[in-house]
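Blinded run. Sample ID left blank on purpose so nobody reads anything into the name before looking at the predicted structure. Input follows.
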Amino acid sequence: MKSAHLANNPHSTYSYWNPRQNAVFIDSVSRRVEDEPTKRHAWELYRKGSPPGVGYDPRGYWRGGPTDPEYHLLRIAPWRVQVLRGRDLRSRIWTAVGGA
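Blinded prediction complete.
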């Protein structure tokens, strides 16, 4: 269902929050990646390059590896990123040249 939503409107927002009230908001354009070399590259980056405690072997979710039909990859192109520091509510905003 999310694929259909993105196909209709690729604009998306991602966010992160922690209990100290620090937050990040990312406004972006997200598109599915279909080419196998890119999907395989992302798979290997995550499998081999994730910091301890963050990464995992994705084969636990997609047994067929990077060619598993259920494995989907998104290319996220941010055009605005806001970082909010909870301690004093200071905010920094980055925007891409040319915007969305």
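Unblinding after everyone has recorded impressions. The mean pLDDT is 90.
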